[in-house]
UniProtKB/TrEMBL annotation, chains A, B:
The keyword Kinase applies. Its cofactor is Mg(2+). This is fructokinase. Its EC number is 2.7.1.4. One of its GO terms (molecular function) is fructokinase activity. Belongs to the ROK (NagC/XylR) family. CDD domains: ASKHA_NBD_ROK_BsFRK-like. The lineage of its organism: Bacteria, Bacillati, Bacillota, Bacilli, Bacillales. Pfam families: ROK. Keywords: ATP-binding, Carbohydrate metabolism, Kinase, Magnesium, Metal-binding, Nucleotide-binding, Transferase, Zinc. The keyword Lipid metabolism does not apply. It comes from Sporolactobacillus laevolacticus DSM 442. InterPro entries: ATPase_NBD (IPR043129), Carb_Metab_Reg_Kinase/Isom (IPR051804), ROK (IPR000600). It catalyses: D-fructose + ATP = D-fructose 6-phosphate + ADP + H(+).
Length: 287, 287
């Protein structure tokens, strides 16, 4: 069995071919320019293989409603070349293969759920905290989508009493993404997160905001595990701070697993999205 | 077909017998005292009928994990007589009937989803805003439960710049429930909500907090409809305020249905929980 996977990001696309055991046979990375250019390179890459199915995790927002006329499209993205682009339609036409289609975070979450640090659980919340903040939730094997896919990085949080930063979200100013994304950290402190690794107050404040959001997600979704990925979560010292804040703020209101188990970094590192796409492709063949 | 329903609340239990068309044949209301007393009166009421199935929506927290040793129990409630009480076990022993078991808000949400103001949708978030704040989410016919059931009234929110009220949640002080529940309104203003009906600033502030939470729920769950019940939502003037705040704060970040359609009061009034229990009982016979 040969499976394809695309991790479609705002700056680059990664594509891979693998087998049903998740052995990766070939990969390519292509810059995100215009659909004509980027997608042609991707489809040329895949056309050398006879794929059985393809899984795509894309930047968004995207249309995931199978009953919609625009299912498989990227919709209202600020990247104008990609607005209202029929992503799945192009792939089906070029490659004539079943395509599983979801968001980048859902695909990465699916990878972590089945083969990463949420392996063995029944439900997993995956979050990426980097250029943006986004998340996906998988429960009993199903990715949560209802009216559309989640955009959970923009939840509201309470301000830390010592923090006067106004927030950078162009929509909500001081929502979670506006206060705690990579660009928010850089704007607040004047340096990138990676350059602030030894500044404990930076990570304490970051943990204060992330823990609040994790509590909201916990109370709404009740995941069995939370996996945190993305650039800022490479600062591994933050995990202890997040768990401590989470414990203090939740104040034992609901039962959660032991926090060392409950809140974990990614297990598949930068491969979560690509592996998730392969797993979604494999799953597509089942049903 | 004869179906039973129990709405098990912290101050009273309501039980009803109905048919598969949701015609209610008989009801009883019993004060919530001790399990021995309350449950005996409930089971005596039902024992006059030959029920095919029974649906229960209970105050919580409860154990909804069918694989758990304590499935069907009320668990860590502050009501000490009811702590670790085997609710479903008692009913099965007394009445020998299949029992569907969920939280009070999940049952009411299920009623609204199938026969109330979310009828015809694929996904519905139901919230009660009264003595406490709680919610349930139904998507494609399934009630969302993962590690356990949601407790979504305690999400964090940002403080209104003019509000100095410290909040009354014993766990989190200024979470949504601590700032916007019925007792929070009464503590902040010195009067019950119903006595403040003509004070527009009361409802503007209430809408400011509720709209934030509705945005968080929207971004995480992406429901097709939101139904708001509970005592405070009998102040119908608040719906317009909530929709206005929601529109302003979401700032068109994601697509949602027209807000008149999206955010609605209950359609089944005080019957949502009982009807939901009957529907859950009926559903139990299918699967």
């Amino acid at each position: 069995m040969l499976l394809g996977s695309i991790e479609a990001g705002g700056t680059k696309f990664i594509a891979a071919v693998g087998d049903e055991h998740m052995n990766i046979i070939d990969t390519v990375t292509v810059p995100t320019t215009k659909p004509d250019e980027t997608m042609e390179q991707i489809s040329n890459f895949f056309s050398r293989y006879h794929l059985d199915a393809l899984g795509v995790g894309s930047f968004g927002p995207i249309d995931v409603d199978e009953k919609s006329q625009t299912f498989g499209y990227i919709t209202s993205t600020p990247k104008s070349f990609w607005r209202d682009y029929n992503f799945v339609g192009y792939l089906k036409q070029k490659l004539n293969v079943p395509v599983a289609w979801t968001t980048d975070v859902n695909a990465a979450g699916y990878g972590e759920y089945l083969l990463g640090n949420a392996n063995g659980t029944e439900s997993c919340l995956y979050l990426t905290i980097g250029t943006g903040i986004g998340g996906g939730f998988i429960n009993k094997g199903q990715i949560l989508n209802a009216f559309s896919h989640p955009e959970m990085g923009h939840v509201f949080i309470k301000r830390h009493p010592d923090d006067t930063f106004e927030g950078i979200c162009p929509f909500h100013k001081n929502c979670l993404e506006g206060m705690a994304s990579g660009p928010a950290v850089e704007k607040r402190w004047g340096k990138k997160g990676v350059e602030l690794a030894d500044q404990s107050f930076v990570w304490e404040l970051e943990a204060y905001y992330l823990a609040q959001a994790l509590i909201s997600y916990t109370l709404i979704l009740r995941p069995e595990r939370i996996i945190l990925g993305g650039g800022l979560m490479k600062q591994k010292q933050i995990f202890k701070l997040i768990r401590n804040e989470f414990h203090a703020m939740l104040n034992d209101y609901v039962e959660v697993p032991d926090l060392e188990t409950y809140i974990q970094p990614v297990g598949l590192n930068d491969q979560a999205g690509i592996i998730g796409g392969l797993l979604l492709a494999k799953n597509k063949l089942k049903g």
